[in-house]
Amino acid sequence: MRINAHRLHESLRQLARIGATPGGGVTRLALSSEDRSARDLLRRWMEEASLRVRVDDFGNITGRRAGSESGKAVLMASHIDTVRRGGCYDGAYGVLAALEVMRTLNDAGVTTRRPLELVNWTNEEGVRFEPAMLASGAVAGRFTPEYVYGRTDRDGVTFGDELERIGYKGDRDNRPGPVAAYLELHVEQGPVLEDAGIPVGVVDGIVGITWSEITIEGRADHAGPSPMPLRRDALVAAARLIAGVDDIARAIEGAVGTVGRITAEPNVINTIPGKVTMSVDLRHPDSATLDRLVAGLERLASDIAALTGVTVAVNRFWTSEPTPFAAEIVDAVETAAAEMGISTRRFWSGAGHDAKYMQDVAPSAMIFARSINGLSHCEQEYSTPEDLEAGANVLLRAALGLAGIEGERTSHKRG
Ligand code: GLV
Ligand code: MN
Ligand code: MN
User: Does residue 225 sit in the same domain as residue 312?
Assistant: First the structure.
């Protein structure tokens, strides 16, 4: 059995129109009107594939395909929210490939033994509502509903209000699962597979990630009559901190550090910036090293405060611990690829994924498809149709292996 590559690409193309950017990418922030339109389309496609669709209290959308047995399902999931000016594949690929698996099984008239569920997670990216993987984290019990609903975007709008506004606040009873095993297919977003000349990756685990909010308070003042020695310029302090974060990450093997978001106030040409808020994203596969990176950030902050006369507050508000996936599911993915004659490489993911939190709930693993030039979270993100097809076929095979097949060519029942 093979997925229908043409149908998968056509669905990817159609979904990518919603929130399309002039540069060939997508902006479809979580719980925006674009996200609502994309959800509406996805829900229609899920219903057309005879999935029983339900929406939970965090807006996660689950489509269930009944198995010959009731009980725990094999989940295939990802997300259709995007970063600002992101690519067409991050998240959407995993969701639409899972849909394609369902469609393929329908075409073949195959009933699996375990039920299959397709899940679209809300707010995976954490760009609009920080932190990332908010809704899968909540389902895994890492965040309370109150915490989730109270998260605000940069305009002060809450997750809860936006979830209701777009009409996707469902019931707690509609959460995904119970889960027998969890599979997430995604584009690699890095250079490993391309360097190795291999189409598909088998993911051993996800690195640790920690996000901090930095608040720098200096003193706003006129840009003209203020002599340099008397200034307390928050943005100059921020510049030192940004360069320092880069140094800290470069000094530790396997570490990465990024300041991706910054706001200076009042942000006008002739006023010394009085206040800066910015983010720091630090990642490493080892928990203790991640803590060391944050300790380095805190030292840097106090050194800069002492040197420049500003105050620098570091609030480490989210940590996603390094997470190895379940060996039996990783092996099942590797076996599925081998059975399909697709060569693979095993490695860790440097990006966060909902699979991280689902590993708390059930044995989980991920499949990667090669990214061209290793690019992602940008409009240039691209994977070839052939590699996307290979990854989706591995998902199909792995899901069938984990769910089992009941009887050949029986007609699929709604369930
Ligand atoms: C999600 O894309 C992340 O790794 O931040
Ligand atoms: Mn993603
Ligand atoms: Mn992403």
Answer: yes
